[in-house]
Each structure stands twice: as structure tokens, then as C-alpha cells.
Specification:
This protein is of the alpha/beta class and 412 residues long. It has 3 domains: 3-84, Arc Repressor Mutant, subunit A (Orthogonal Bundle); 88-206 and 387-406, ATPase, nucleotide binding domain (Nucleotidyltransferase, domain 5, 2-Layer Sandwich); 215-380, Nucleotidyltransferase, domain 5 (2-Layer Sandwich). It is 42% helix and 19% strand. It is built from 14 helices and 14 strands. It has helices at 3-9, 13-31, 37-44, 48-60, 127-144, 183-191, 200-211, 271-274, 276-288, 302-310, 314-338, 354-367, 370-373, 387-402; strands at 64-68, 80-84, 90-96, 100-107, 112-119, 152-159, 162-164, 169-172, 194-199, 220-225, 229-235, 238-239, 342-346, 377-380. The longest helix has 25 residues, at 314-338. The chain is globular. The structure holds zinc ion. Residues 252, 262, 264, 266, 269, 271 line the site of zinc ion.
Length: 412
């Protein structure tokens, strides 16, 4: 059992209410780069006395600090604001893909302090093998950040697949074989650090909600494009998981009955037209049929296909356009259902850029009622390799924010 669960079980109702108030205040400070006590009281609905007491404790614990605001309501009068101490804690994030492990160490505000990407062909390896590599990656990253292992509060692990969050067991796991033990147990045992497993797209969505595009947005969707097409749903500032915790498998929504075979076993899923391997397969087929010629020494890669399509290769352009078209069809359905404020596209696959997103936008317009499209902001993120691991780290940070008084805190 995790330390946090033991702590919560032992709290009486008054202490629970106190813990909730602390969390709400700390969370409000996190959402603003600097905020006064008066503003905190207004936003949280708590009394000024309660805010004063709790923030005094937070300052004493080094979780937050006082800073002077540049703007003051009264000229000549100093206005004090409160801000999160980024060095109060550190966490590690791990993202597993079929061909690599990414690891990042972040501070309390999810700033990446160090990161590493290790190429690994998992190829259905045993769970112990995966845990060994994760242990090495975390130790390396912590060292690179100039920290000691004792300073790491927790480890978040993000991976593709359908994860039942309550049991930590995968319903469908494309990466590795599992037995009775869960991966989080194996990592916790090796490093003696609480470890939290999460679907990778949900982890990235949480990072947007807490520290990114979604910080001040109540309802939004995140679409992740890499080997798989993932999705995270935020409704009224909460991650939506569904009955079994396996909601939002947007990539496996069927848009063409009896269409292309998908790796999940069904036919005609969105992913079967839009992910990297779908585009590579379609390009290979069109090359073999003689639609275009490739004389380079190396095989096909997504980067090469993007380059050729941008140079005017029409058959390739139409493959990317088909991907955009299918994606747009799916997104139109999401807009009709969710009426979101934002749809954020993340992941390595965003590098296809306008080749996919222009036809996608046209398809969205074609298939969505105009009044629903108008308020939606479609955001294509500038992607960094460490973003996935940072997302996973946010899972551990979320746990820290919930129980900050029970943890070891680093001074500023
Ligand atoms: Zn599928």
C-alpha cells in the first residue's frame, strides 16, 4: 500500500477537511504565478483567517514563498504575493514506447531539470527487463539533475494501452508481457519510491491541465499522435476516465466499417489511417504499385515522406490528406459531443504539420455544425522529446500536491 493511502485512512473528518483546504489553497497558488492572500480567499471561498493560517504553514514548510508584486493597488505600498517554491520537491517521469524509454526529472512546477531518451526494442520483453531499464534511466536522470535519490518524491509512469487504474492492471497492453505483479510494484521495490502508473495520453493531458494550455480552461481535449492515437478528456477541470478507467480510446473508434486492419484487431479504426505506421504502410503500397519512385539508399521513414510530400509528391500528399480527412471526421464527432473550448494536438506526429492538419480542418468544417466549431481553439503544440516524460512526472506531482504536509520538503 502506498504511504499516501495509509495517511488518508488515518485522518478523521476534521483533518480531512483541513487537508482539502490546504490542497485548494496550494492548487490556487500553483495556477497563478503570483497571487495575494486576499485573492486566494476570494477564489477559494475560504475565510481570510484560514488563508493566513494555512499559507503561514505552507511558508514554514518551504512549499511556497512570499514575493513582492511589480504592480501595487496603492502607490508606494508593497503588495506581497505568494508563489510555489519550485524546489520544494522533485519527481521523475517515465514514458514507455515500443522503441524507447524517455525519462525526465522535474521540480514542483513541472520544469524539466534533466531528461534522457533510451532506445529500447521492447519486443514483448518480460516485465523485470522493463523495470531494470526504468531503474537505470531514473538513476541516470536524477544524477544528471544534480540530485540525490532521497529527494525524489515519486515516479510517474506513462504508457500506451488500456489501464484499469484501480488495480494497475492493463486490459490490453501493446508493450510487454505481464504476470501477476504490476510494473509500479517492481519499480517501487527497486527504488523504494512510490510509483504511479497511468495511460500516457491521460498523463500528458494532466500536464496540460496543471501546467500548460489547460491551466485556465475548464473543458478541453488532448489528442496525442505517435505510434498510437491517444486522447485525454477534461470535463470541468477533471480528467474523465469512464466506468473502468479506460475511456477516451479515440484512436480505436471505427470510422470505416471493414476498412484497414488495426493493431487492436478491429478494422477501420482512426489509428489504422493516421498513425506513423499506417502512413508508412500506405506509402510502401503506393510505391510498390508504381505510383511514385524512390531511389535513395535508405528505407522509408516518416521524416522522408514528409519531406517528399512537401516537395510536391502527389501520391504521398494524398496519403497525408487521407489521414487528415479521417482525423477530421473523428474530431468533428468529438466537437459535436463535447463542445470543448480547446482541442490540443501533441506528440511526435504533429511534425506532419499542414500536410495533415489542413485537410483535417476542412473535414471538421464539413462535418460539424457551424455554431459548435466557432468557439473551439485548435492548438497544434510545438513538440519536445521530453514532453511525454514530463507528462508522466505530473502524475507523481499531483500526489505530492494532495499531501504536501506529510512529505519531506526541500528548502529554497
Ligand atoms: Zn483499433
Amino acid at each position: 500500500m502506498h504511504l499516501n493511502k495509509i495517511i488518508m485512512t488515518n485522518l478523521n473528518s476534521r483533518q480531512r477537511a483541513q487537508a482539502h483546504n490546504q490542497y485548494t489553497i496550494l492548487d490556487t497558488i500553483r495556477m497563478h504565478k503570483g497571487i495575494s492572500r486576499v485573492q486566494i480567499a476570494e477564489l477559494t471561498g475560504q475565510s481570510r483567517a484560514s488563508v493566513t493560517n494555512i499559507t503561514a504553514d505552507l511558508i514554514k514548510k518551504n512549499l511556497i514563498y512570499e514575493k513582492e508584486s511589480k504592480e501595487s493597488a496603492t502607490p508606494g505600498r508593497r503588495r506581497v504575493e505568494l508563489a510555489i517554491n519550485p524546489d520544494a520537491t522533485y519527481v521523475a517521469g517515465i514514458k514507455l514506447s515500443s522503441s524507447r524509454i524517455s525519462c525526465a526529472v522535474t521540480d514542483m512546477q513541472a520544469n524539466v531539470r534533466s531528461s534522457v531518451v533510451i532506445p529500447v526494442q521492447f519486443d514483448k520483453r518480460p516485465l523485470d527487463y522493463v523495470a531494470d531499464i526504468i531503474e537505470d534511466a531514473v538513476r541516470h536522470c536524477v544524477d544528471k539533475a544534480g540530485l540525490a535519490m532521497e529527494k525524489i518524491f515519486g515516479i510517474g509512469v506513462g504508457m500506451p494501452g488500456l489501464l484499469k487504474r484501480d488495480s494497475g492492471v492493463y486490459v490490453w497492453k501493446p508493450l510487454y508481457k505481464t504476470g501477476e505483479t504490476t510494473l509500479s510494484d517492481l519499480i517501487s521495490q527497486r527504488l523504494s519510491i512510490n510509483t504511479y502508473l497511468e495511460n500516457d495520453s491521460n498523463a500528458l493531458t494532466l500536464a496540460h491541465l496543471w501546467f500548460g494550455e489547460g491551466t485556465h480552461t475548464n473543458n478541453f481535449l488532448v489528442i496525442t499522435i505517435e505510434e498510437g492515437i491517444g486522447m485525454g478528456i477534461v470535463i470541468e477541470r477533471k480528467l474523465y476516465r469512464g466506468l473502468q478507467g479506460i475511456a477516451s480510446e479515440f484512436g480505436h473508434m471505427v470510422v470505416e466499417p471493414d476498412g484497414e486492419l488495426c493493431r487492436c484487431g478491429k478494422r477501420g479504426c482512426i489509428e489504422a489511417y493516421t498513425n506513423e505506421s499506417a502512413i508508412l504502410h500506405a506509402a510502401e503500397r503506393s510505391l510498390q504499385s508504381g505510383s511514385w519512385k524512390h531511389e535513395g539508399a535508405n528505407g522509408l521513414s516518416l521524416d522522408l515522406l514528409i519531406e517528399l510530400a512537401r516537395d510536391g509528391n502527389k501520391p504521398l500528399k494524398s496519403i497525408f490528406a487521407k489521414a487528415g480527412d479521417i482525423m477530421g471526421l473523428g474530431i468533428a464527432a468529438l466537437i459535436q459531443i463535447f463542445n470543448p473550448e480547446k482541442i490540443i494536438f501533441s506528440g511526435d506526429g504533429v511534425k506532419s504539420g499542414d500536410l495533415v492538419f489542413e485537410p483535417m480542418k476542412q473535414a471538421i468544417e464539413k462535418h460539424t455544425n457551424p455554431e459548435l466549431i466557432k468557439p473551439v481553439h485548435i492548438i497544434v503544440e510545438k513538440w519536445k522529446d521530453s514532453d511525454w516524460a514530463r507528462g508522466a512526472a505530473t502524475i507523481a506531482l499531483k500526489e505530492f500536491y494532495k499531501y504536501p504536509f506529510d512529505q519531506k520538503v526541500q528548502s529554497r
